[in-house]
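Interim report, section 4.2 (structural modelling).
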Amino acid sequence: MVGYWPTLEFMASTIQALPTEVVYLITAGEVIDSLASVVRELVENSLDAGATRIVVSIWPQLWRVRVADNGCGMNLDDLQQAAAAHSTSKIHSSADLWKITSLGFRGEALHSLTTLADLEIFSRQGGEKAGWQVVYGNGGEVVQVEATAIAPGTVITVANLFANCPARRQGLPPTAQQMKAVQGIIQQIALCHPHVTYQIWQNDREWFTICPAATVGQLLPQLLPQVRQADLQEVKLELPQRQNSALMLVIGLPDRCHRHRPDWVRVAINGRMVKSPELEQTILSAFHRTLPRDRYPVCFLHLAISPDQINWNRNPAKTEIYLNEISYWQEQITQAINQALRISESNIKESVHTTRVSKLLKAAEEKGSYNLNSKNANCDTQYYLKAVAQVSNTYIVAEHSGGIWLVEQHIAHERVLYEQLCDNWQLVPVEPPIILYQLSPGQVSQLQRIGLDIEPFGEQLWAIRNLPGMLQQREDSAEAILELSWGGDLQTAQVAVACRSAIRNGTPMQLPEMQKLLDDWQRTRNPRTCPHGRPIYLSLEEPALARFFRRNWVIGKSHGI
Ligand code: ADP
Ligand code: MG
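Predicted structure of the assembly:
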């Protein structure tokens, strides 16, 4: 899998000026317009250099940024060329524009920085005995070179940013806001490159650190502290039908986390966060009717796409792209999200995680006295939910070999019926017709919109000659139709019908009936939440129970261990 993701293999090739015809092909534009953009350009260079540890130091009041990395470094020849206009080691010809696997390729950042700030680079290439310190003049020419002793890697310092254009500084927001932008940029980069350590300093004090993680799912709780790893589900799809393509997705499970803004619907392509309204919309649609009203999912999508399918040249910050075959990608994304939303053997997770249980777990893990094999707990468990009892005429108690669940009967049934209605919105004739009184023109057209056959039947009377099949046998069908007439789209109507038809809480159920409901519910596409976004089940998995009951206190056989 790793092979698909941004290779970022550093190029041993030397830095060269791009031929003029390539320069013309590249979107010209200002890449440096803020402290955050300086950080972005320098950190991206570090990643392109294969760094696994990046230290960013910012002194906002001094308009100074320093980025130190343990990447491949530059030799003296490279250093002399690095800040010249249109100089890059990453592409050499126009054909290379279709083979971009690095984050940079325009050879503009360092050069722009020399015209807007003071630039100094320390660098030592791996394998060389010493490094070099180079100071650049306003235009990228080298004005000072000295041999220096540094560890392999590169340290780039940009100072006095925009000193020669005070209007630029004045146009920028207050420091706090700029620093927020810096933090945002680093978080975005970290999501795309989770294997790297990022240490960020502000005014000589450590500000925050992002520790490397094997997967984005493991990294994300560092960026969103209210989200735990157990609240997330990751999906990786290899796409053999497309060369060099793969899809990686991490979502917040809708019964565990959501946001009041769509600020965590994020899309990255080949190692870079992009703005893609089409793909963002696809993500939002895939979560349709799984979240509470006006709530938005947590979702980070990373696509690895063959570089010849992408044109990064749409804008200089490379956040907008032209992507070929967008509908193919939309389909893959929808499938991947559907997969992540299902409850399967591989993604049963503890939903109850009280602070006490978490603390116990932590303490136990520190002592090393538990050997909770999460693979055993999560993946190998035979996943069959068996109804064992009903509690309060409301909850179905279900067991499977790895734990106990409580399933709320009404909303589980509502989810089942809602999906049936979405798949098959069947209207059946009624004879005699249902008669409704005093409908407004709006109500009449609403009923027509969702497919009902309605006609005047006399003074202030209307006859309804068909209705959703599910309502057919109900005594309250007139009331139900009245409810549908109050507006909303077809899906709102489907939710209303499902809710009305679903078994009420408070209704006693027999085991076979409960079992049927559990079976039907498990087969739904989005079993975690009802169409209003409420969680449907509470799980108590065996590891949590074992922790709670201190099953590690091996006291004696008589205690039933
Ligand atoms: P680009 O990244 O588009 O190539 P830049 O102006 O950002 O252009 O950088 C110019 C060149 O300087 C890069 O192509 C790379 O060879 C070299 N370079 C810049 N930063 C680093 C770094 N941190 N480590 C190694 N090489 C670097
Ligand atoms: Mg660059």
